From TrEMBL:
InterPro entries: Flag_bb_rod_N (IPR001444), Flagellar_basal_body_rod_CS (IPR019776), Flagellar_FlgE/F/G (IPR020013), Flg_bb/hook_C_dom (IPR010930), FlgE/F/G-like (IPR037925), LlgE_F_G-like_D1 (IPR053967)
Domain (Flagellar hook protein FlgE/F/G-like D1) ranges: 115-178
Protein known as: Flagellar basal body rod protein FlgG
Residues in Flagellar basal body rod protein N-terminal domain copies: 5-35
Record carries keyword ATP-binding: no
Main location: other
Signal peptide: none
Keyword presence, Repressor: no
Pfam family name, one: LlgE_F_G_D1
UniProt keyword annotations, A-Z: Bacterial flagellum, Cell projection, Cilium, Flagellum
Organism of provenance: Lysinibacillus contaminans
Location relative to the cell: Bacterial flagellum basal body
Amino acid sequence: MFKGFYTVATGMIAQQRRTELLSNNLANANTPGFKADQSSIRSFPDMLLSSVGKTNASASQQAGSQYMSQVGALNTGVYMQETSPNYVQGQIYSTNLTTDMALIDGYLPQNEDGVTGSIFFRLEHPEGGEAYTRNGNFTLDGQGYLVNPQGLYVLSDAGQRIQLQNDDFQLDENGSIYVNNQQVARVGVSYAANPNILQKQDNGLLRMQDGGDLPTAYGTDGVNFTLRQNYLEGSNVDSSRTMTDLMTAYRAFEANQKVLQAYDRSMEKAVNEIGKV
C-alpha cells in the first residue's frame, strides 16, 4: 500500500516538472532566438517479486530457486530523466532595423552520435569568457558598441568588441560589417558540434559547461551558414502543440492525484474501520 503512495507521488512530481517546462516554453513563444526545451520521462527499474514455496525451509534453502516462484514485476514510479533544448531554427521575419541580425542555418554536419551541430552569436560575458545566443536583437549603446538586449557586448570574429559610429552600416551574408564601403569588423559566430554540452542560462544565453569557449564557425569544414541584416530569428516553440502537451501533462497530474486520494481513503478505512474489528 505504501509503495503505491510513492509510485503515484513520483508521477505527480514528473508531471509537475513537465508542466513547468512547457509553461516556460509557452511564455517564450515570442522571444527572438528562443529554443524550446524538451523532456524525456522514464520509469525507474522494475522490481521482480518472488514468493517462497516452503515457509518451513531454512534460510539457505529458501534462497534456492527450487523454493521460489515469480509473482511478477512491481513498478516503482517515473522520473524526468533530462531536459534538452531543440536547436531547430525558428522562423525568420523582417524588422527593418539595421542592428537586427539573423543566423540562417545552411548545412550543419552531424557528429558521431547523430547530433546536428549549431551556430551562435558570440557575446562577452561579464564574468569572463564568452556567452552564446541565437537572439540577434542587437542595439548600439551610448559609446557605439554593439550589444544584446541585456547589454552584453557582441564580439567580432577576432574576439573584440564591435564599435560603430551609428546604425548606418551594412552587413553582408558572410558576417562582414561595412561602413562607407569599408569593412570595419566581422560578426563573431561560433560553432558547437554538440550543442547539448551548452548550459542554458537566463535571458536566452548559453555557456560551455566547463567555462571554455567554442571554436569559430568561419572556415569550419562542412559548416555552411549566412547572416541577414534587418531580420530576426523567432522562437521555435510550436504554441498549439505546446498547449496540447500542457493540457496532457495537467490531466496526467490530475489522474495521479485522484489515485493518491483513493489510496488515502483506503488507508483511512484500514485504520478507522478494520482496526476496530
